[in-house]
Amino acid sequence: MRNATATRFLDLIRRAGWWGTGIFVGTFFFLTGGLISLLDGDFRIALQSLFVAALLGCITFYLVQRKR
Measuring CA to CA, how many Å separate 6 from each of 24, 38, 44, 45, 64? Predict the structure, then answer.
């Protein structure tokens, strides 16, 4: 089961390409920064970070789902 999950994840990376993988990592960092800012009480920066993370997530989803 664990091997199947790893294979599926590697297939998604292969389909997204290097750009999609880099954007996914950027999405993760923006989500982390947004949540830290939210816990710190800076709501303006938190909302901006979460908005950028949502936008990058949509771009990553498009890169994975597109047909080659």
Answer: 17, 32, 37, 34, 16
